[in-house]
């Protein structure tokens, strides 16, 4: 596993769609996590989105929902942060390569 201390929200829900739920919570309700720094929220968003993409492609065999574009937008989002550790994003990407 990679930088496990950086992925600080391993599972917020126990139901089968936890990947989507975690991503939505982090994307649209990040203010609920005031005690967590912005970069860790960003790393977690990228982690859960990547896992959701990976699981979908493994189940259905193709990216017909255009997850790749969404992942690219998340990478662009990271460019707004001055101190992003891109090696964390790279490690997450490698973990979920399809």
- How large is the count of helical segments? 4
Query: What is the general shape?
Result: globular
Strand and helix order:
HHHH
* Global mean pLDDT: 78
**Main sheet summary:** none
Tally of discrete structural domains? 1
Look at the helices and sheets and give the structural class. Answer: mainly alpha
Residues in β-strands, percent: under 5%
Q: Classify the helix fraction into a percent range.
A: 55-70%
Please report the distance between the alpha carbons of the first and last residues. 17 Å
Low-confidence stretches: 1-16
Number of strands: 0
Tell me the Rg in angstroms.
Answer: 13 Å
Features of the shown structure:
mainly alpha; 4 helices; 57% helix; globular; disordered N terminus
Could you characterize what this model shows?
It is a single chain. The protein contains four helices and no strands. It is mostly helical. It has one domain (18-95). Helix 2 runs antiparallel to helix 3 and helix 2 packs parallel to helix 4 (86-95). The chain is globular, with a radius of gyration of 13 Å. The relative contact order is 0.17.
């Amino acid at each position: 596993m990679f930088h496990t201390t950086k992925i600080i929200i391993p599972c917020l829900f126990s139901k089968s769609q936890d990947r989507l739920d975690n991503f939505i919570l982090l994307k649209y309700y990040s203010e609920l996590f005031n005690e967590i720094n912005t970069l860790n929220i960003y790393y977690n968003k990228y982690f859960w989105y990547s896992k959701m993409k990976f699981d979908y492609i493994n189940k259905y065999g193709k990216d017909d929902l255009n997850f790749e574009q969404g992942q690219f937008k998340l990478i662009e989002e990271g460019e707004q942060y001055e101190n992003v550790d891109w090696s964390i994003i790279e490690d997450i990407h490698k973990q979920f390569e399809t």
